[in-house]
Amino acid sequence: MFTTVESFVREYELESANTQKLLDALTDESLNQTQVEGYRPLGFIAWHLVHTDRGMLYGTGLTFEAPSASSGPPTQAAAIADAYRSTTKNILNAISTQLTDAKLQELVDMFGLKWTISATLYGYLKHEIHHRGQLTILMRQAGLPVIGMYGPSKEQWAERGMPVPAL
């Protein structure tokens, strides 16, 4: 969990930059990619990172601008990437100006449970990382390059002149 606002801000800046790289790599055509019939397409999951998570953050009492959760995903990949960029900036500003280190220990109602604001921020971050994993799978299926998050992707090994790890 986070004990200071600054520790969350630093972590979210790093993680959101990685998410932004993935969103910037999407194409309009890739947004319809699904794992199998009847499951959420890539564009829906990408849009979910822009707006739906805000409900979790609003549960902490934070206020910031973000697209409506009831709006459907745009059909242009650049619109999703731009909305994420803007929403991330707004989230970072809200956290930096509306929270204090002491406030991180306050309890809020989250999904019918009592969570500290610190635990909520931690859950928010893990939620984004979870969906980022879904994006990378769907991006591979759509034929898009995947950016490594915590180490090189297969493509990045070759770019660095290193042998790709064996299967």
TrEMBL record:
Binding site residues for a divalent metal cation: 48, 127, 131
Gene3D superfamilies named in the record: dinb family like domain
Keyword annotations: Metal-binding
Keyword Hydrolase: no
Gene Ontology MF: a single term: metal ion binding
Superkingdom, taxonomy of origin: Bacteria
Keyword Oxidoreductase tagged: no
Pfam families cross-referenced by the UniProt entry: DinB
Family: Belongs to the DinB family.
Identification of the protein by name: DinB family protein
Native organism: Paenibacillus roseopurpureus
